[in-house]
What we know:
The chain has 152 residues and is mostly beta strands. The protein has a single domain (2-40, 71-143), classed as Phosphatidylethanolamine-binding Protein, CATH 3.90.280. The chain has one helix at residues 128-135; strands at 2-4, 12-13, 29-32, 40-47, 61-69, 75-76, 86-87, 107-116, 139-149. The strands form 2 sheets. A 6-stranded mixed beta sheet has the order 2-9-8-4-5-7, covered by helices on one side. A 3-stranded antiparallel beta sheet has the order 1-3-6, with no helix packed on it. The radius of gyration is 15 Å and the shape is globular.
Amino acid sequence: MQLKSNAFEHNTTIPAKYTCQGAGINPPLVINGVPQGAVSLALICDDPDAATDPNGPGTTFDHWLLWNIPPQLGEIGENSHPQSATIGNNSTDTPEYMGPCPPTGTHRYFFRLYALDTELDLPQGSDKETLEDALAGHVLAQTELIGVYQKT
């Protein structure tokens, strides 16, 4: 399984358009190679570098949580999410994409995609810990796309 973006390459800079210094909209994501038997997909975007940033929150910052994404979906468009998907709360307790906004230095943003053997019975607004607990034992495949960003 593969996750790409037409906006940035793996391990390169996320354009400002998708951050707090731009429109703050989600980047487009392209999904390929979903395994046979996948019933749904889940996506987690987070910033583990926030945990060690002296001006950060002291914990990984969750930017975007989506689950029950249709496995046949080939793309998540810019500034959108699949209507049939369920969206979880980011670290500011809001159910939306929150663009990168590192307090200091360059941070890495991990977009992790999971192919699942089931749909998840979680309400909108669930947090990452609840989502990760629900993923346990249901992951058929996973992949990640990493982008980096530093405020100018």
